[in-house]
Each structure stands twice: as structure tokens, then as C-alpha cells.
Amino acid sequence: MSALTSVARISLCRTGVGGVLGQLPGASAAYGRWALHRRDVGGVFSGCFDSWHEAIAAIPAGRLAGWDNDAAAAVFRGPLPRQPSVYAAKFWLSQLLRPGDRVLDLGGGAAVTQRLYTALASLPERASWTVVETPAVARVGASLADTGELRDVTFVDTLDAAGPCDMFFSAGAMQYMPDGLDVLVGALAKRPRAIVLNKLPLSRDEDYWTLQNFGPAVCPYRVWRRDDFITRITDQGYALVDAWDVAELSCDIPFHPRLCVPMFSGLTFIRADAATY
Fold first, then answer.
1. Does position 24 have pLDDT exceeding 70, yes or no?
2. Please, which residues have CB within 8 angstroms of residue 270's CB and are 6 or more apart in sequence?
3. Contacts of 57 (CB under 8 A, 6+ apart)
4. Phi and psi (nearest 5°) for 29?
5. β-pair type (194-200, 264-271)
6. Which among 7-16, 26-35, 192-201 has the top mean pLDDT?
7. Using one digit for the tens of pLDDT, what is the confidence trace for 88-122?
8. What is the pLDDT of residues 212-250, one digit of tens each?
């Protein structure tokens, strides 16, 4: 990204200048047309909405919506990402996983974290890893497994098919789901011993939806108020034992400086009655 582009992004997304410009007639609509129709960009945000339904209704006609389509799923046939925050997640997996453990990876793509983890260390003996994905992404993962590119991982397209787990893991996926946090809280009824979450857009004060154009498609995107998100989990009998910054990711929405999330978050929780690790 050029210095000029960086300055423009900061001005529009993180300062009062953006808020003022957003009041100009037609400015937000013109930006939305540019941001949501392009297919040669990724990670571009537009708009602020009160609900998933309101956000998805704003996706332009002719654009694919969400991750359950072949164009979006093809993203996972590319090279593995090299993001610094992955190492914090891998640290906690290495500390918490035990022989025979079952890992449920919600929205794990083509087993991205499992592949990065096993490139450096072996899973504990008899440990299993199940990725829960959209049907389109699960098909890509299964096809890579069939060719031998993936090992020791199972792909399913419903939580029920995954069954109970000892470790609930998710990295950068819950924000795309209409009920991502509720899905997590519901899964806690089965009492996994530990929860490791990475690449979460958590805001100090705001809770809202926006739209993200990630290239092949456009998707509603949830930002949670940090304290509320954490409380929903600790109220289920879990203790927050670590949190880290994900400096490589941010949520910048032009004309909405108060909604800026300058860096994402990672969180690790341990069930209160299983707090030793």
C-alpha cells in the first residue's frame, strides 16, 4: 500500500475528517458502489448496519454473498497465510492439547491452522482435528485431503456432524456468521475444556455489522463490543487466561471513524473446573 493510500485510509476511517466527508450528499453511496462492486480488492469494508439481515440486504445485485460458493472457497486453494498472530494460537494449542483430544475448528477453511501447526509440531497421540465449514469450503478441504495435501483432518458442514470436542478453536470466521457467538455459546453446553479464538474484531464501545468485500464475494461482517463478548463466555463457566493483539488485521470503514478497530484480538479461555494446563 502506498504512503498516499495509507494517509487517505487513515483520514477517511480514523479521523474526524472522514466523519465530515461522510455527511456530503452522495459520498457514502459513491464509495459503497466502488468498494462493493470491485473484484480485484480484498478486505474492504463499507457501511454500518444494525443486523445481519440489514447488511445482507445491502449487498449489490450481481455479487456473490458469503463463503458458501465455489469462487469464495477457491481462496483456500492458495498458499497458507503467514500472519504473526498464528503463533500465539499455536502456542496455546501446544500448551492445551492432550493425547486423544478432539479439536473442533469452526470456520477453519482448508484446515489452515492445523496445517500451520503440524508443519512445526505433531499433534498429540490419537488427537483428532475436525473442521466445520460451509459446504463449498468443506468440499475444497476434502478434495485436498483426497490428493494427500492434507492429513489427519476431517471436514464436515454442520456442528452436529462434528460432535463434542475437548478444544473449541476458531480463527477469523465467527464474524461472518449470522449467529457466530450464539453458536459458540451453544457449543459450550458440551463443555469443551478449552477455547482458543484468534483474529476477532472486538471494539471497545461499539457492536455493529458492516459489509466486507473479500474479492470473490461480499459478506456481512460482525464487530462485537469486547466486554460483552468476553462476558458471554465467562458466564458459561470459563476463565479468560490470555489475550493478545492481532496487529496485522484491522476494520476501517470510511466515514465511520468511531467504528474503527485498529487491531483485532485473540483470546484463550479455560473451563473453570479444568484450569490446570
1. no
2. 96, 193, 194, 195, 238, 239, 241, 277
3. none
4. -65, -40
5. antiparallel
6. 192-201
7. 999 999 999 999 999 999 999 999 999 988 888 88
8. 999 999 999 999 999 999 999 999 999 999 999 999 999
199: left (phi over 0), alpha (psi -120 to 50) or beta: left
- In this prediction, residue 120 carries a pLDDT of 82
Structural domain boundaries of the chain?
3-274
Architecture of domain 3-274: 3-Layer(aba) Sandwich (3.40)
Neighbours of 138 (CB within 10 A): 23
Confidence of residue 2 (pLDDT cuts 50, 70, 90): very low
- The C-alpha cell 480484498 sits at 42
For 121, left (φ over 0), alpha (ψ -120 to 50), or beta? beta
| pLDDT interval class at 3 (50, 70, 90) | very low
Vertex 90 angle, CA 166 and 194, to 5°: 25
CA distance 190 to 163: 9
**DSSP states of the chain:** --HHHHHHHHHHHHSHHHHHHTTSTTHHHHHHHHHHH-SS--SEEEEEESSHHHHHHTSPTTS-BSS-SHHHHGGGGSPPP--THHHHHHHHHHHH--TT-EEEEET-TTTHHHHHHHTTSPPPTT-EEEEE--HHHHHHHHHHHHTTSS-S-EEESSHHHH---SEEEEES-GGGSTTHHHHHHHHGGG--SEEEEEEE-EESS--EEEEEE-SS-EEEEEEEEHHHHHHHHHTTTEEEEEEEEETT--B--TT-GGG-BSSEEEEEEEEGGG---
Count Cβ atoms below 10 Å from residue 76 Cβ, excluding itself: 19
pLDDT at 234 (0 to 100): 94
